[in-house]
TrEMBL record:
Signal peptide (residue range): 1-23
InterPro entries recorded: Cupredoxin, ENL_dom, Phytocyanin-like, Phytocyanin_dom
UniProt main location, coarse: membrane
Origin superkingdom: Eukaryota
Membrane topology, from the record: Lipid-anchor; GPI-anchor
Protein's name according to its UniProt entry: Early nodulin-like protein 15, putative
Length: 177
């Protein structure tokens, strides 16, 4: 009976710990004043992004003056050419939050005139779900293939379900065993 009690407790703890592996909010560049023209190439936001692991469901947060700047989500081609004329999405509120809803690359540039050409741009590569279990592996250099459209929307409810199940198991384990 004691081994069953230990097993149930360990299972409950494992489920609770698993639930903490959910989405994170990432302040772009790691600071509130990072969305700006970089002073040099080592100050580039892509340096920060290359050292950060992004997962489906994570959120990017930009802080900036919405009166003088904006964030544009663009295609790879528009990123490379700094084309601001046809963004996928445009954000001007100064406190932008974008969900990374699929694996693969996301491209962002400044909407302020001339800022992208001076280096104010960012590429984020979101890991495919199969890489989530390997935190010590290097950040992928090539974009991962995009999962089916519906799979990203299934991840958050799955995690929420594990959180509920873990907390419920934890409560039962300590209440009755």
């Amino acid at each position: 009976m004691a081994s069953l009690r230990t097993l149930v407790r360990l299972l409950a703890i494992g489920l609770v710990l698993f639930s903490f592996c959910e989405a994170k909010e990432r302040l772009v560049g790691g600071s509130e004043d990072a969305w700006k023209i970089p002073v040099n190439s080592s100050d580039s936001l892509n340096q920060w992004a290359g050292k950060t692991r992004f997962k489906v469901g994570d959120f990017l947060i930009w802080k900036y003056d919405g009166k003088v700047d904006s964030v544009l989500q663009v295609t790879k081609e528009d990123y490379e050419s700094c084309n601001t004329s046809k963004p996928i999405k445009e954000y001007k509120d100064g406190d932008t939050k974008v969900e990374l809803d699929k694996s693969g690359p996301f491209y962002f540039i400044s909407g302020a005139d001339g800022h992208c050409q001076k280096g104010q741009k960012l590429v984020i590569v979101v890991m495919s779900e199969k890489h989530w279990d390997h935190p010590d592996s290097p950040t992928p250099t090539a974009p991962a293939p995009a999962p089916a459209k519906n799979s990203a929307s299934l991840i958050k409810p799955l995690r929420d379900g594990f959180l509920f199940l873990g907390l419920a198991s934890f409560g039962v384990a300590f209440a009755f065993f």
